[in-house]
Amino acid sequence: MVSDTVHPVLPAATPLLHDAHGAMQVGGVDAAGLLLAPGGAEMAALLRGLDGRRTQRAVLGDAAERGMDADAVARVLDGLRSLGLLVDLDAVDLLASDAGPAADARAASELPAALTRPGAWRARRQAVVVVEGATRVGTPLAAMLSASGVGRVSVRDHGVTAAGDAVVGGLSADDEGRPRSLAAADAVRRANPLADLRPVAPDATADLVVLARPWAASDPLAAGVHRSGVPHLVATVRGQTGVVGPLVVPGVTSCLRCADLWRRDADPRWPALAAQLTASEAPPTGSTVTCLLTAATAAYQVLAYLDGSAAPSSLSATLELSPPHPIPRIRPWPAHPGCGCGAAAGDRAGTPAPPAGDAGPVGVGTEGLGQGTMGG
User: Fold this and answer.
1) Cα 219 to Cα 297: distance, rounded to the nearest angstrom
2) Could you say which DSSP state residue 300 is in?
3) Domain 127-365 falls under CATH 3.40.50.720
């Protein structure tokens, strides 16, 4: 039973469509809808007023004062809720929003997607995410996360912006010659003027680190991040392929070294090849569409992890994006029995090794090493 202290929200963009017979259809254009007959102006006004500021008890009380049947209104709310058209704010979520009409307007589009469980919006607002690399993926990703309600997003990069770093939603052509970290901060502020961009203190930890540097799976930073126990996600473009994952929860899921060991098993040359990937800074790569698709996919994975709404599909796996194909290819990376990360002692300990000649465990539709997509 739904508590009468929840704060119901009907997203402002939900269609309220009327027919010639006095009925009103709520939603139902691209997904399921609810048909209300009759569906007069009073009901339409009540539904449009569901902005999360009042409890359900207050909504039903107001309906009764207007002469409406409170029980019938409650059934309508329950019906909308069962179809996923109505979402509920928790009291803790209400306390986690920025003040002011502009902030309310920006949050209105983000709230429905975040309210998958009580307190999910507050979890986002209290989260701290560090993006390593103000790249053509990292900067748009940081902007997306801040605009999606993540409370604190810090971008770390010690380089200088080059002309090739510019991308829609990220660094701009005017940033050339500026420190990338400062240019990335400005890009995030364009998406969310109230963004908290403070660096994480040395004695503090983030909730998640995103490794957005080129070839991040072989990034020397990865080992230190893993030792710190902070969950981390790879989000980068290699050649023309966007790679998101694996999302590593230290000690629970397979780690980036597990993937390296699978590669070594498949090709003994891999350690020497991997060392070359970080010998110098790789130039910007990937088309605008590939970079933004990779950033958006990574943002979904980060938010799913922070919200606790579902197990992100990048846990112990990589999602590989190669436009114009819209569906990512999934490459699993199980825990390697020779890795000391501790994940092999869990559920994945009995996973067989990948067949010889592959870059690693290959999922349906993925490519092998010889075809140029090194996952993870």
Assistant:
1) 21
2) H
3) yes
